[in-house]
Amino acid sequence: MIDLLVAARNDAGLTQAEVGARLGRRQTFVSKYELGERRLDVAEFVAICRALKVDPYVLMHKAENQDD
Hints:
Elements lengths: L1 H10 L4 H8 L3 H8 L7 H11 L3 H9 L4
Helix pairs in contact: 2-3
């Protein structure tokens, strides 16, 4: 799922700092979850998806079906 968030950020043409600013957080917050150093709770995941203008349900569905 993290790989999909990174891809969505890159597709949106946003830097980690820009996503952090949209979330009211620092760039390091984005870096840590993208590197797998920090887990996300559901509320954070939804907020990140909204900041990236990605539907969280679509992203979860993609993650579920990645191995199919």
